# Entry
Amino acid sequence: MSAEGAPPVLVAAELQPFLEPGDLAGLAVTWLPGDEPTPAGDYVAIVPLLTRWIGGTELKRLPRLKLIANCASGHDNVDIVAAELRRVIVTSTPDVATEATADLTWTLILACARRLVEGVDLVKSGRWTGWDPNQVLGIELRGRTLGLLGASPVAVAVGRRAGPFGLRLVYTAREPAPELEAATGATRLDLKPLLRESDIVSLHLASTPETKGIIGPEALALMKPGAILVNTASGALVREAPLAQALAEGRLGAAGLDVYLDHPRIDPRLLAAPRAVLLPHLASATPETRRAMARAALANVRAVLAGGPPMNPVYR
# Structure
């Protein structure tokens, strides 16, 4: 679309079905398909998906760019330092995916605990010969401990869902999280005691230099034998090779992952590991959430181009 005198904006073409004309009013939109490189031009804003890398090279080709309005909860696809050097604002869409992400976190917890994928594969393979008392035995959740790494809104939403399952809830965070504690009754622990005590460890941390690779050989060695690891937060938090080794050796009960360090590439050892439930980044995959994310990204564009502050800044 084009509009005379309207600010030129690049928008991921995959978002078109989720946006209404009103979301784009007053903008000269160029739709950018995911399989095309980021073009050069006088665009003042770009709305990319998390699959599009925006770094120094791309920013040099966009000299008038004011805003990268990421249509994602995170920002691993954006070189924040390069954006800061060029005074380009970066925003994300963190809160609109909270409930959908919490739902998917619980999908992974239950799939791991009850060995759902193994059961489906057994039936579909034709090898199932009927009921057997020792067949595909999982674990019951009541009385177990769920450990949350982080106290994000998603962690709070995951914690709220834990009560009916009869789980004890613990969490680790730099500071006490009154909202999480009030909503769930969770107890704050340091990281090492949490890993030792939890039957299920669910990750809800942002990717930072301090948290990258936080689940590596040392952390995995501290976890209970047979424990479950779930990650719907950031692939950078987990070192995939040590995780695959822990699964292969039977030290870890299962892992449920929706995010990866270098998606869509996944470490072949993890692909081959037993009891690994691997999903293709489905956390926000509902029409309602994808629509809300697209609209939130465009709302950031409209706010910044109107001279106001960004609604969800990663870097101002």
